[in-house]
Amino acid sequence: MNDYDQIGQGECVSEPLVSYGMRTCNRIGRIASATGIAAAAGAWVLTCLPVAAAGATANPSGNCRVGIYHLQDGRDVDIGLGNDAHLRWRRKDGTSGELTETADGTWTSTLGWTSRDDGKRVAFSDCSKGELTFAGVKGQRIALTTTETRFQSGGVNLAGRLVMPKGGGKVPIVILISGSEDSSARDFFALQRMFPSEGIGTFVYDKRGTGASEGSYTHNYQLLAKDAVAAMQTARQLAGARAGKVGYQGGSQAGWVMPLAATLTPVDFIVVGYGLAVSPLEEDRSAIVLDMTRHGYGPDVIPKAMEVADATEAVIISNFKEGYDRVDAVRAKYGREPWFEHVHGNFTFAVLGMPHDELRQKGPVLLPDVDPHYDPLPILRKLKTPQLWILGGDDIDAPSAETARRLAALAADGRPIVTAMFPRAEHGIFEYETSADGTRLSTRNSDGYFYMMRDYILTGVLHGRYGSSVISGPRR
Prior knowledge:
Among the domains are: 64-141; 280-366. By secondary structure, the protein is of the alpha+beta class. Strand 4 (87-91) and strand 5 form a beta hairpin. The strands form 3 sheets. A 10-stranded mixed beta sheet has the order 1-10-11-13-12-14-15-16-17-20, sandwiched between helices. The protein has an 8-stranded antiparallel beta barrel with strand order 2-3-4-5-6-7-8-9. It has a two-stranded antiparallel sheet with strand order 18-19. It has 13 helices and 20 strands.
């Protein structure tokens, strides 16, 4: 699954990811472009090792500007790490921009991910004061309590962080689950600060094989689900008496992982952003159908494009060992037709774009342990955990129509699933503008996206309207 996974999942840091986390390019897309293709058994013992409790001004990222600030106009702005030496600001209404330092020490801002100046200027105080001036409005860093930890899952040592609002009362605890990105969630997920500023304890961890965590990067959903359970148990232990209800939030691939985790050890809620209730293979095929319809091709072309999908699917199913003769055959048959160049899908573009010998070697590394036939429906049918699913109606990476249909059927059958559709949003719940060559440039997250998650985690229900979203399923 392509990931533009979490608020603050948002830079493309050598590949990053998504909405209030990193707006990233997925692992295949990033490595693909770099290479020319665009892109469990055993004992699962929990050992919680607190490393350090950080005070209000402590900043685990090492950059003293990183933090969430309360502005004098009543709004909050989060400052997080960006690509290279850049920073990224985000507000809870979904607006965002990239910051670049100038010679005089102030920072200029560009709109969303467009590289177009938005006129905002930012200045930071010295580190000890924790102040900034954002677009002419002064602000003060919000004091949060941070605990660094390392914990075990299946013999692998993982790096985590609990961020709590100040005070001594009970608060909900949400565990942030990564998508398919291979960057550090602890470095880039802005929700680790945004949720605590609203009274929600938040646990963020680097998934295995990323950031400061050990182990090998994987797409094994069962293994990742067990890691999520270990993270949840660690968060609950660290929060102690302050832990209220506990649940998961994550985007994209996390939509397959979190329900699995909830069947292993129950939680109180799940919030899924731009996830899927279909298999990875179904995702690829539906994305190809969208590729065709978006470029003006109709029912006469779709069956031909599905022949291409059948051929690339054979390569994926074999773990890149065989099926290349079928790829060559469809290329010879359709390669000169005008629609062929628009076939992208979620992984088909990689199979079509990389030389066979190279793909045999690199494919298993790009998609380690992936189960292309994984069907999430049996888990969703039996899961009794309250869930909020947030989808983008204009998502071309993980088309949402069939997922929305399946979720509606599950809700009608009594499953506690609320679905919110942002009609103009793409993957990551990003709104966008389209350049002359058809490329989408993300401008912001949809208004209402963050507040919808906040309200659901705090109260278990949604109240009123959330931007342009269309909400279905039980509100209470």
